[in-house]
Amino acid sequence: MRKTLAVAYLNFKGAVKDNFFLGVAFFFAFYLAFCIFLGKLSAGQMSKVLSDAGLFGIEVTVITLIIFSFTMNFYRERDTRILEVYLSRFDRASYVSGKILGYCLLSLVYLVFCAVCFSAILGAYGGFAWPLLAALYPVFLKSALIIGFVSIFSCFLSSATTAMLTTFFVWIASEFAPSAVIITEQQGLPWQKAFIKGIYLLLPNVDRLNVKSAAVYGQLPGAQYFILATLYAGAYLTALWLINILILREKEY
Amino acid sequence: MQTAHISFENLKRGFGLAEVLQGVNLQVQRGEILGLLGVNGAGKTTLLRCLLGLLKPDQGKIFFSGKKLEAHTVREDFGFLPENFFPPRTLKGADFLNAMAWGLGASKQEPLRLLNLVGLNAHLNKPIRAYSRGMIQRLGLACALLRDPAVIILDEPTLGLDPLGQKQMLDLLIALNKQGKTVFFSSHTLSQIEKVCTRVAVLDKGLISYCGPVGEFQDKYQVQSLEEAFLREIAVKE
Question: DSSP 3-state assignment of B7?
Answer without folding.
Answer: strand
